[in-house]
Specification:
By secondary structure, the chain is an alpha/beta fold. Helices cover 43% and strands 16% of the residues. It has a single domain, classed as Alpha-Beta Barrel (TIM Barrel), CATH 3.20.20.80. The chain contains 15 helices and 17 strands.
Amino acid sequence: MFCTGIENSIPTINNGRTRVDQMEVCGHYRHWRLDFDLLHDIGICYLRYGPPIHRTFLGPGRHDWEFSDLTFAELRRRDIIPIVDLCHFGVPDWIGDFQNPDFGRLFAAYAGDFADRYPWVQLYTPVNEMFICALFSAKYGWWNEQGTTDKTFVTALKTIVKANVLAMQEILKRRPDAIFIQSESSEYFHADSPDAIGPAEFLNSMRFLSLDLNYGRRVDSTMYEYLLDNGMTREEYHFFLGNRLKQHCILGNDYYWTNEHRVHADGRTWASGEVFGYSEITRQYYSRYGLPVMHTETNFKEGPNGDEAVNWLWKEWANVLRLRNVGIPTVGFTWYSLTDQVDWDTALREQNGTVNPLGLYDLDRNIRAVGKAYKQLIAAWREVLPAQSLCLAVPVVPPSHWDRIDAREQHARAAARLVAERRQAEAEGFDR
């Protein structure tokens, strides 16, 4: 699955007074038809995409679907397969932030309403980068609630992951063969000195928290104590163990130059640049979860030489091939995003209007060197990879096929499996 995405981050900054909207500043609301044309030009039929939740979800049971109806109808007409991103770093003003304990219930209802309205959609990322969302919002103090304590972080984390789990449940009720592609940041923390080994080990355990909870995996003892010491109850923890939907998921993971960190003895961290690289860090995540993998985000800034992003694309693709060659089922690759972004050089904390040359196209919709390179890569590898013995075929139903007999049969088989899963869970003492 060769993929890109429309950047749709929407956090608030300045204590909630300012909404950052990447679809707005990158011009997608004005140029969405042209953006979809670019997908055809480059040869991409998978798109990470989602409705702007702050404009769409107006209150419990209240929605403005106008923009979504236009764009999703066009995606369906073009037979582009969306991986629907329902929450990307922010919530509507009326919900507040990720400290709101009602977010999970409200978001799950929204996800169910979306699935009802667009039944042909099969692939979802309910909440994007859950760990990063909680970290930036509730530990670093950058976005949304701008919390800076372990307690605010744990509260955001449990709220976000519960929302993701509940949303998956609601979507499966409408689309039993839905597939959930988590887009989660893959991290590693390197000790800078012997005295930094302890802090680095702690952070290397913490990096797994969102996926451990999401997949119903028991966390290690240090993380269990950390969660309970900072506000998670035993009942909340057991919710995640008792609502295991891992079998419906693909492990989507993101990797950037900033995903590896050096750790000082006092716990301070800073970017180390690429040390292990995507393949080694992904191997660690795959060993932990045993799920098919998709590289769901990467990019690199085009610099003065003009080939910096092209070289990064080649390097990331080589890492993907390495994973496949050692037997790790890897089903997709994503350059994120379709166009350049704005103000990500300050992690969206400031509105400077700085264009970050990270896209396949610039904001005037002119193709960049990396866009040309990705187009060539797709053309060269599209027919080769499915013929390789290690390729895993994902049972994706294109929008044009969703009401065909074979798609209906797949839907019926998936519904039967869901019933069997619920019965097994009840027999084990868990109520989904």
